[in-house]
Amino acid sequence: MQTILTDFYILQSYEQTENGGFVANISLNKDHDIFKGHFPGNPVTPGVCMMQIVKELSEEFTGLKLFLKSASNVKFMAIINPFETPDLKLQLDITQTENEVKVKNITSFGETIALKMSVNYQKLTI
């Protein structure tokens, strides 16, 4: 899997759901340089990094190269501290049309929902 978030997270496991979506379990790298600046002494996973993880996992599971076209209903509902809650579960409900991939995501740790969003990606031809 190609990633721009080098060593930021590890895909521990995933499974395909009955509706064609995926559930992925990842672990954040608490020692990544991003957390040294965001924020020193109080590390918080940047929302843009969470959005990038969803894109990268969507590319992995569809086998497609994707470009973010739009995002809606993006709700950051809990702080993700990589020292306290490094293990995350991402539910990705993926639907495809001829030119687009639509993903509804819920990211959680334990019983806490940290992120909900709907995104539309354009399929790229390489």
From TrEMBL:
The keyword Lyase applies. Its EC number is 4.2.1.59. Residues 18-98 form the ApeI dehydratase-like domain. It is an enzyme of class 4 (lyase). InterPro entries: ApeI-like, HotDog_dom_sf. It comes from the Bacteria. One of its GO terms (molecular function) is (3R)-hydroxyacyl-[acyl-carrier-protein] dehydratase activity. This is 3-hydroxyacyl-[acyl-carrier-protein] dehydratase. It comes from Chryseobacterium geocarposphaerae.
